[in-house]
Amino acid sequence: MEFNDVVTALTGLNLHTLFFFLLSMWWFTKDIRADVKSMKDELHASNTRVSRIEGTVYGRKLYED
Asked: What is the reported pLDDT for 24?
């Protein structure tokens, strides 16, 4: 992609198009972010349980959370 192509694409955008694009990206990715946070929390809890079963301790900080 050349610089002229980028300039042409940017001049073709207007405020409405940019706003709709950003709104669409937020709408489609908001559930993904929530799912990733949920998976992180579940993985942390599972890791804590496995650590307790095996008798290994990663450090006190792991259990303080």
From this structure: 93
| Cα–Cα–Cα angle for 19, 25, 29, rounded to 5 degrees | 150
Alpha-carbon distance 26 to 17, whole Å? 14
> pLDDT tens digit string along 14-31?
888 889 989 999 998 888
Residue 5, CB-side half-sphere exposure with 13 Å CA sphere: 2
The three-point CA angle 51-55-60 to 5° equals: 65
| CB atoms near residue 40 (< 10 Å) | 10
Between 12 and 56, residue with greater pLDDT:
12
**If you compute the radius of gyration of the chain from its CA atoms, what whole number of angstroms results?**
22
